[in-house]
From TrEMBL:
This is Cell division ATP-binding protein FtsE. One of its GO terms (biological process) is cell division. Pfam families: ABC_tran. It comes from the Bacteria. SMART domains: AAA. GO terms for cellular component: plasma membrane. Residues 4-223 form the ABC transporter domain. It is found in: Cell inner membrane; Cell membrane. It is a peripheral membrane protein. Keywords: ATP-binding, Cell cycle, Cell division, Cell membrane, Membrane, Nucleotide-binding.
Amino acid sequence: MAIITFEHVGKRYGGRYEALADLNFTIDAGEMVFLTGHSGAGKSSVLKLLTCLERPSRGRIIVGGRDLASMRAARIPFYRRQIGVVFQDHQLLFDRNVFDNVAMPLMIQGMHPRDAARRVRAALDKVGLLHRERALPIELSGGEQQRVGIARAVVNKPALLLADEPTGNLDPQLSADIMRLFEDFNRIGTTVLLASHDLALIARLRHRIMKLRDGRLISDREAS
Ligand SMILES: Nc1ncnc2c1ncn2[C@@H]1O[C@H](COP(=O)(O)OP(=O)(O)OP(=O)(O)O)[C@@H](O)[C@H]1O
């Protein structure tokens, strides 16, 4: 069953040339998919549309049965709770410790601190950082900081996990470790869509690869 459908999606920023043009694809629930392409090909734009940070200029985007174009602004925060997002620079709060960073989405939702603490520790356990919950981000390595970013993205148990160049700043060994984490979450049922230009890494992993060029889908290779 499709969890994401793009139908004839186009995106223009401020009336300029098209960042995305007539994009059509579906991603089924439970898939793990890489989105690749050169810098400026439109990878981040796809993710911004999926998180409603941007609206499509044309076409339809359906996520979990909801049409994003017709979603009222007031619904967007609720919609976003079902999606975990991992950024290249992880966007941690450097004056808060690991626990508080991961707890942030749950606090914003008003979850009871006791329930939140249980969730936070479960997420930190999954990324192997339970023993660092009191550390400040500055005390962690780059790879560990990215793991905190992933824990924060999954703390809500999202059906869909999006990541924009999550290994962009990491060396090959750490990148492979981070990819294994995404595979772990995928194995337990989370749909994963991951933008990356690290072709060597993603080719080894044998998941579906969608390739963009100048805002168009130029190839879509099924998992092998
Ligand atoms: N907010 C914006 N305003 C104007 N143009 C934008 C905006 N965001 C993206 N663009 C343009 O849209 C095109 C696609 O950008 P996008 O960030 O989606 O590509 P990308 O494949 O993610 O590239 P990168 O790997 O460099 O992040 C680029 O030409 C970019 O300059």
